[in-house]
Design goal:
The structure holds two protein chains of two kinds. Chain A is an alpha/beta fold. Chain A has nine helices and 18 strands. In chain A, a hairpin with a 2-residue loop joins strand 2 and strand 3. In chain B, helix 2 crosses helix 5 and helix 3 packs across helix 4. The chains are: A alpha/beta, B alpha/beta.
Chain lengths: 318, 266
């Protein structure tokens, strides 16, 4: 057997959108006639058959497991068994927190070819090539996998466009081997909002980052945000330092600026995790003293300059 | 009781860098090296456990790297690690995260810690896989993206919260010994005092070869890696339209953009 095995991702009964992006990544790779199977691990995997029946899926593997939520030992064991039975050429998982917890272990144990945070995949003369970022995303790196029969790729989110259209894939139940897991999940905790702001609903956001340098400077930008009518947001270092509540953090582990139309980033370098929460915004203005900052790569407008000076000058205009 | 902390000396690019002649990496003279940001947090977490413990806890920093990483290991020693281990051999050059993990696992076997910490990822190549792959070679339980941890030294298990996407946490109990990858923000890393920096100079950095850890050249480098770099290049990036002028002129243009948005929104 060969083909492409995609591992769908679900959490608390909801299919995570990246699952369908993985199907799209499989399409970018598939050779004529090659089968794409999507596996979903859950206590009740059948409920995900309908949302996974999208164009490009030939088969859905429902894998019933005892753990109700992600569990590393459970996933490693079940996905390992699937790979053993199906012997796929390529296994695609999301570059997500769940995958961080088991994919590398599986690759190490099974001797798979392996690359993470992959944003481009191609096959050139039957050779699989994956592209990822290097040196803080300043360069792109093409990797290949000489001598590896199967390759596991963790695919970056928000890169591949989910397929349009539905399909009627065959559904196969897969018996996962029993596993004595050494971790046990207890509960989910929503990060308590330090205030009642909803970053996902804000249309105009002014975000501050590490560039503000010290906590005492936060007040200046809070006042500026009020004056121009923007919601004040921040990047990770500001929330980690406790200068603004976690509820105002934009990015992968914070909030996505879903409704935002104008996003002004001041002193934000533009780490990939921050970009994940805002790069889709139509009008992004980046203000940074470092002309090489990654944020300028996604911004529509850029101001290379001192953020405090720009903030002061902007303040007097409102 | 011992905690092993795996650290990496990462490389950032100088402003004007050049790709190496073979096209597979950057010329090393353009790399600016420092301790990985995540590792600062995992070291602090280990030192915090040590300081709160009634029984002696030893914190050991380990890195698989050439001699230049001693600078980062000295930093770890200054911030509270008791000793440091560095494994290196010319054959390790070019190893990917899986091959590095294979080496780290041999050190973990020797040191037999109750917990092994690694950063969630490194700021240079962001593999997010070295710690978890190390756990696989050890056969230990493991968890990624730990943003808070409760552990009493010597206890059979630890309780942690892993930080999921979108501001959600998942609380999990794990059996020890275990490998945990530590997220930014789990604590507030300390600064090393001048005194501790001086003291660190006297603490030992043990240097081990591949043979010392029982591995051969086939276990590392290209042969022991699960991927190989074909090509490194500078991508064509979308580039912001720059707003020129002095600060007043730049701010005036920004004010226009804001008013345009407000006009369209109202």
């Amino acid at each position: 057997m060969s083909g492409i095995l995609v591992l769908a991702e679900q959490r608390r009964g909801e299919l995570r959108p990246v699952s369908l992006e993985l199907v799209a990544a499989a399409q970018a790779l598939r050779r004529t006639g090659e089968q794409v199977a999507v596996a979903v691990l859950a206590r009740d995997p059948e409920r995900f058959v309908a949302p996974l029946s999208v164009a490009g899926v030939d088969e859905i593997l429902t894998v019933k497991v005892a753990a109700s939520e992600f569990d590393a030992d459970t996933f490693e064991s079940a996905v390992g068994a699937l790979i053993g039975e199906r012997n796929p050429d390529v296994i695609l998982v999301a570059h997500s927190v769940d995958s961080f917890g088991f994919a590398a272990a599986l690759a190490a144990r099974l001797g798979l070819g392996f690359a993470t945070d992959v944003f481009k995949v191609e096959r050139i003369a039957d050779e699989l090539i994956a592209t990822r970022g290097g040196y803080g995303q300043k360069v792109s790196v093409e990797v290949d996998f000489p001598g590896r029969r199967s390759v596991l790729l963790a695919i970056r989110g928000n890169v591949f466009k989910p397929p349009e259209g539905t399909a009627s894939p065959r559904v196969t139940a897969f018996e996962a081997p029993p596993v004595a897991s050494r971790t046990s999940g207890r509960e989910f905790i929503e990060l308590s909002a330090g205030d009642d702001v909803d970053m996902t609903a804000a249309e105009f956001i002014l975000t501050i980052g590490r560039g503000i340098g010290e906590e005492a400077k936060v007040a200046q930008f809070r006042e500026l945000a009020d004056a121009i009518g923007a919601t004040l947001g921040c990047s990770r270092p500001i929330a980690d330092a406790g200068w603004l509540p976690k509820s105002r953090q934009v990015g992968q582990s914070g909030k996505t600026a879903s409704a935002c139309k104008l996003y002004i980033a001041m002193g934000v370098s533009g780490a990939i995790q921050h970009l994940a929460g805002m790069k889709h915004v139509n009008t992004i203005v980046a203000v940074n003293s470092d002309a090489e900052a990654s944020i300028f790569g996604v911004a529509k407008y850029g101001i290379v300059g001192d953020i405090f000076e720009i903030a002061e000058q902007l303040r007097v205009l409102f | 009781m011992r905690i092993l902390v795996a650290v990496k000396q990462v490389a950032a690019l100088d402003e004007d860098f050049e790709i190496r002649g073979d096209g597979r990496d950057v010329e090393p003279e353009f790399l600016i090296r420092d301790l990985n940001e995540w590792d600062d947090f995992s070291l602090e977490e280990a030192v915090k456990i040590k300081e709160a413990a009634a029984e002696p806890v030893e914190v050991v920093a380990v890195s698989v790297a050439a001699e230049e990483a001693d600078e980062s290991l000295r930093k770890c020693l200054a911030k509270g690690a008791d000793r440091a281990i560095r494994v290196w051999d010319a054959a390790i050059e070019g190893s990917d995260s899986i091959a590095i993990a294979r080496v780290l696992a041999t050190v973990a076997k020797r040191e037999a810690p109750q917990l092994l910490f690694a950063g969630v990822q490194s700021s240079d190549h962001s593999f997010a896989s070295t710690g978890i792959a190390t756990a696989a070679f050890l056969g230990w339980p493991h968890a990624a993206v730990v943003s808070s941890l409760t552990y009493a030294p010597g206890a059979a298990s630890a309780v942690f919260r892993r930080e999921l996407e979108g501001g959600l946490l998942h609380e999990v109990e794990i059996q020890c010994p275990a490998v945990l990858t530590i997220q930014l923000g789990i604590n507030t890393p300390r600064y090393a005092s001048l005194r501790s920096i001086k003291q660190a100079a006297a603490k030992p950095i043990e240097v081990l070869s591949l043979a010392d850890v029982g591995l051969s050249a086939a276990d590392v480098g290209d042969a022991g890696s699960s991927s190989r770099v074909r090509r490194m290049y500078v991508p064509d990036k979308g580039r912001a339209q720059l707003i020129d002028g002095d600060a007043a002129e730049q701010a005036a243009r920004l004010a226009d953009i804001i008013r345009e948005f407000k006009g369209a929104a109202s």
